[in-house]
Protein 1
Amino acid sequence: MFDALQDRLGGILDRLTRRGALTEGDVAEAMREVRRALLEADVALEVARSFVDKVKERAVGVEVVKSVTPGQMVVKIVHDELVAMLGSDAQGISLAAAAPVPILMVGLQGSGKTTSTAKIAKRLTTREKRKVLMASLDTRRPAAMEQLATLGKQTEVATLPIVAGQTAVQIAKRAMEAGRLGGYDVVLLDTAGRTTLDDALMAEVVEVKKAVNPHEVLLVADALTGQDAVTTARAFDAALGITGLVLTRLDGDGRGGAALSMRAVTGKPIKLVGVGERFDQVDEFDPRRVANRILG
Ligand code: GDP
């Protein structure tokens, strides 16, 4: 991910730093190229536009044009603004609520939601020594429930016993009750996904949210789907008020636009990223590290 963007931005900024003096025109021209590079990397239009405007606003100031190393100053501004666009500081999952802390996992089918649920459960149990219970609310796809049960065995994390015929809300309430009785710290609720956004899916998840009042609503989105991931994020955030994002398949060779746009479009932090299929292949999203990688 980000390789093509890294090449493009590297080239543009290199040319800028090799020049001695910079005029406002030089900066404006470079920013047009940066904007084009971002759009080609699938960054949402409004995000690319606002990014370039912010960099330009700071870069055409006297400090840069009069500086002895103007190109390097522009590079620093681009770096700072990239970090700001990505959300500044790494933010993990919050567990600052009364136990059992309900966490709702939402997203489209195939986004990596169930895998991410298991990855988070494993991370919380091994790293933070929390007692975690997972429950699948996908009443229409028994295979999804079985999948979570299998992942639970593989990760050695408890899953709520499957009871046929219950609604998603009933299962969610049963999971919270089991969480209370069993002394669990966290209850991860893996909601049903659909292949496309639809009202019935959203209505069901909204009902579940009302029933359990989750501390975190994490949207799992596939970074390889580019602009579609951004559209999905907007829709889920509008309906549910998500608290953060889990971006999967950052190990793939997508252009990276979704990863770069998500925070700016939703205003919600990317909390974790999936970087492979294994349970341990999940990292905190660190805006500085990503910006460093993109700018080389
Ligand atoms: P769900 O339908 O949203 O629950 O999706 P699943 O969790 O079943 O994941 C679909 C596929 O994506 C599975 O084969 C996962 O192993 C794979 N997957 C999930 N996250 C990642 C990731 O971060 N990187 C890679 N390479 N594959 C992933």
Protein 2
Amino acid sequence: MPATAENCITIVLATANRDKVKELRPLLETISPLFNVVTLHELGVEVEIEETEETLEGNALLKARAIFALLSVRFPFMIALADDTGLEVEALHGAPGVYSARFAPVADGQAPTYQDNVRHLLYCMEGMTNREARFRTVVALKGTLPSPEGSFSFEHTAEGVVKGSITRKEQGDKGFGYDPLFLVQTTGKTYAQMSMTEKNRLSHRSLAVQQAISYLKDILQQKSAPLIDTNTRP
Ligand code: ITT
């Protein structure tokens, strides 16, 4: 079936991080042309969701639920997809982990930049020989879709993990966040030395998205749900 505006499922990316959007959109669109991926920015939605949970799973669900609650009036059939990601460093007992975005100390009311966090991580790991780390993404889906037996709702989380190590200085200028410090052993490159296509081929985010999509395909098949978007266009 050729994908048209009328036979796509609307997936709203529940993130304010434009760098994540740049990676998520091609991942989802490559997996199936039947997903119509829209961002909060494109929908004119500006919302700050406070990450109050202590796990990636908790925060991913919190973001997906908040965006679903906000937009399900506008889109009766949609999926909100959120991503919560953490860099877990073995020698730091899993830090920065769920606090990866807020790792470097900054003045009250300020948010650290990527560069602040990168410098702070190098500082915390000065002299450490154990550089082992992993990137972990939890993708949360919350949706309501039509099916021959009436609409059905679901909530699901999927995880992607990539092991690597923390370099002693920044390497590469692509990507975002901690990418210049995260060396993927199998490639001999940091994420920041990879093109986005290369990173998307093997990243924590791409593994989590693939799991989420395979869940989605299973549930659509189980419910014999048609890939038809009956929403009014925004
Ligand atoms: P949203 O909650 O709006 O999605 P966020 O930037 O707060 O955006 P996270 O809490 O999931 O997202 O991410 C925490 C931080 O981890 C993020 O700000 C980056 O510094 C870093 N990060 C996330 N994904 C990354 C990746 O693929 N490569 C490098 N750093 C990443």
